[in-house]
Amino acid sequence: MTQSVEKLIQEGGVGYFGAMTASVSHEIKNCLAIMNENAGLMTDLILLSQQRPPLDLERIQSITERITGQIHRADTILKNLNVFSHSMDKPVQPVDLSQAVQLAASLGRRISENRRITVQHQPPEKPVEVTAPFFFLLYLIWTILEGALDAMPSGSTLDITCSEKKGLPVISLFSKAVIKPGIEKAMTLTASQHLLTLIPVEVAVDSTTTELIFGLPRPTHNPLP
Amino acid sequence: MKVLLVDDEKELVSTLAQRLGFRGIEADWAATPQEAIALLDQNHYDIAVLDVQMPGMDGFELKEKLESAAPHMAFIFITGHGSEECYHIGCSKAGEAYYLVKPVDIDSLVEKLNSLKDKGETK
């Protein structure tokens, strides 16, 4: 039974959903903790000023700016979470690949940061469209990203871009750090067969640029709005 | 009592240090485990308050390193990560009473710091 549950969690993407929501909730907790400390510091300063006036207004202003910054940070995190939650609304839909890559990287930011790897995403000049089950596309992108994180040394940077090559949507990974040889095979093995049936992906290594290239299926219908 | 606060959220840990200062507790802070180890090289601390999840090295691993350099130190863990596994590890490393979940109530933290000091758990 344990094996069946583990298989279901892996193949159905439940494990991925859990890992991302854990990462996001951790980030939101940090935002709340910073706002909590800054609100507390403001209260401390007000109480102190009642004994020893005047109140340092510049300090209060810098505290409110920090709180506002954290509100914006939490808002962005929650917007991403909301898009992620709605990624299962339709079985298949047109998706901007670059936005999907950005979202997948943002959702897992805490995980990449814990490994001290910076993921840099450079948006393409024009949108790259795919038609895919959105949730499983995010899962696939994360599987690719996580595979690369596993193969890279701590402290390095991973660049990820989207483009269209010969009419096919493509995700490219590049790092100045050494990515372990054979990673492309390891990554496709990591992605469950079920996932690869939903979104067939071709993997290649560009020997001149040492880029890892993931070719996705051509978009079929329903162009992006 | 001198306290070392370690959390990769710089805004959190720097603000917490100021607030502890208002309460008569001298606190230094570090935003990375490496900074914390460097601070311990140059200062004496009674208690360290460690974030559990940090880039490169988790709080439990950092505790081992700090403790080997300063066996007298006592530890409190703070976390934003509420998994059961993390809770059990945290409690086993510091005791249930000294494993706090963010956002942390300052009065509760001060109480725990004083309690560790009074118990003489800062060896």
Labels describing this entry:
heterodimer; A: 225 residues; alpha+beta; Heat Shock Protein 90; 2 domains; 5-stranded mixed β-sheet; two-stranded antiparallel ribbon; 8 helices; 7 strands; B: 123 residues; alpha/beta; Rossmann fold; 5-stranded parallel β-sheet; 5 helices; 5 strands; globular
Briefly, what is this?
The complex is a heterodimer of chains A (225) and B (123). Chain A is of the alpha+beta class.
Q: Spans of chain A of 5+ residues with little confidence (pLDDT < 50)?
A: none
Secondary structure tally, helices of chain B:
5
Largest sheet of chain B: 5 strands, parallel
- Which residues of chain B sit in consecutive blocks of at least 5 with pLDDT less than 50? none
CATH topology of chain B: Rossmann fold
Describe the fold and architecture.
The complex is a heterodimer of chains A (225) and B (123). Chain A has 225 residues and is of the alpha+beta class. Chain A has 2 domains: 3-85; 93-215, Histidine kinase-like ATPase, C-terminal domain (Heat Shock Protein 90). Helix content of chain A is 56%, strand content 17%. Chain A contains 8 helices and 7 strands. In chain A, the strands form 2 sheets. A 5-stranded mixed β-sheet of chain A has the order 2-4-5-7-6. Chain A has a two-stranded antiparallel ribbon with strand order 1-3. In chain A, a hairpin with a 2-residue loop joins strand 4 and strand 5 (168-174). In chain A, helix 4 packs across helix 6 and helix 6 packs across helix 7. The radius of gyration of chain A is 21 Å and the shape is elongated. Chain A starts with a helix and ends in a 10-residue tail after the last strand. The model of chain A has no long low-confidence stretch (mean pLDDT 86). Chain B is an alpha/beta fold and 123 residues long. Chain B has one domain: Rossmann fold. Chain B contains 5 helices and 5 strands. The relative contact order of chain B is 0.18. The interface between A and B is medium-sized, with 25 and 21 residues.
